[in-house]
Q: What sequence folds into this?
């Protein structure tokens, strides 16, 4: 009798599934899809072994100023004073543990996703030679901010077309020691920061730009990068590294020397999606991963990369907020040598202490960890790892 009932169950189940699937497919075909994804070829992610072996080093970090900050993405310091930009559009100074808002580029309200374009979203932040701050605001452009007076000066506006393209998502920047040149990324000329998931999934390409503070000229240095994100000048200032988030790799563009104007691959097929990149005291680079590509394990991003039709289906039916919930929480920071080999890696599987890390900024023996979503900054003592 049991085989008969299991057969009945199977037939009933399949009939029910088919009767639900057909109308669902019909509806799905009719629904608009916000993105037009292209197939992306990624190699099989590197095995998490050797220096990439999972550990729980990031759990040794302490959370600072919890619930007093909203998504402190990038961190810079002048002496022991820290600066960061937050999701509520503020540029913040932290001195002796006290938090103070020094400037705003946009204006309130800053409650919802819809408010973001007017509220502004300061992302990359750097200190220039005269101890002024250079800030990349995703919606407004490049600014110089006086940390003493809070005065803001626009350098490059997103309203200005650059070689016929509009800047829709100004992301990170790196400044020469003399303050003359600023290299910055525009992550997309199509999507805004609030739609970053569409950008990751669609795989459209954009570029690396250069702003000359003397001539006030903007030049496009590289195009065809898929989600260009964090940027960092080399210690000798002969090249700029640019993280290509969707492709899980870092490209190198030469700004001086014999190779000037040329580009090559610095690190390929990384164990996660690189966000920001900063110098490490050893002459290498700290790279924060906004998501990980587990191997062994299942990488959703890799699974979807060659299947644009599944991506279309997902975004026809689900909101970006819902899709984000399927991305495993896993925090990973790697240190690269000056040649791009892995020196060490710090992990927090499941993001217990450190969740959603966007940047690792080294200062005075500590690694300050910025986050595009968490309400705090984490600090890791490098002597203890």
A:
């Amino acid at each position: 009798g049991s085989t008969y009932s299991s057969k009945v169950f199977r037939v009933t189940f399949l009939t029910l599934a088919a009767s639900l699937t057909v109308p669902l497919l019909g509806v799905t075909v009719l629904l608009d899809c916000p993105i037009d994804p292209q197939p992306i070829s990624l190699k099989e992610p590197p095995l998490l072994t050797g220096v990439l072996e999972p550990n729980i080093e990031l759990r040794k970090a302490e959370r600072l100023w919890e619930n007093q900050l909203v998504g402190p993405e990038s961190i810079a310091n002048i002496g022991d004073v820290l600066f960061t930009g937050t999701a509520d559009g503020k540029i913040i100074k932290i001195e002796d543990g006290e938090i103070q808002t020094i400037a705003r580029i946009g204006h309130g309200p800053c409650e919802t996703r819809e408010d973001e374009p007017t509220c502004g979203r300061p992302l990359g932040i750097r200190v220039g030679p005269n101890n002024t701050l250079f800030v990349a605001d995703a919606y407004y452009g490049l600014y110089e901010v006086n940390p003493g007076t809070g005065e803001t000066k626009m350098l490059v506006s997103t309203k200005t077309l650059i070689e016929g393209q509009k800047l829709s998502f100004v992301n990170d920047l790196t400044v020469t020691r003399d303050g003359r040149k600023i290299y910055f990324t525009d992550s997309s000329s199509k999507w805004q920061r609030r739609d970053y998931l569409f950008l990751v999934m669609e795989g459209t390409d954009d570029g690396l730009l250069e702003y000359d503070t003397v001539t006030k000229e903007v030049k496009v240095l590289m195009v065809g990068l898929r989600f260009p994100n964090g940027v960092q000048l080399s210690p000798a200032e002969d090249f700029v590294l640019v993280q290509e988030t969707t492709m899980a790799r870092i490209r190198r563009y030469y700004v001086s020397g014999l190779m000037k104007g040329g580009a090559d691959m610095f690190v390929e097929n990384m164990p996660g999606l690189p966000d920001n990149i900063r110098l490490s005291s050893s002459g290498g680079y700290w790279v924060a991963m906004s998501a990980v590509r587990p191997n062994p394990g299942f990488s959703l991003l890799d699974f979807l990369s060659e299947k644009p039709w599944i991506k279309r289906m997902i975004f026809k039916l689900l909101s970006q907020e819902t899709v984000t919930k399927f991305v495993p929480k896993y925090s990973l920071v790697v240190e690269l040598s000056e040649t791009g080999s892995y020196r060490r890696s710090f992990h927090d599987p499941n993001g217990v202490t450190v969740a959603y890390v966007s940047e690792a900024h080294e200062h005075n023996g500590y690694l300050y960890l910025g986050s595009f979503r968490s309400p705090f900054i984490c600090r890791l003592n490098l002597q203890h790892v």
Q: What stands out?
A: The domain at 40-381 is CATH 2.120.10.30 (Neuraminidase). Residues 80 and 282 are 20 Å apart (CA to CA). The chain has a mean pLDDT of 93. The two ends are 62 Å apart (CA to CA).
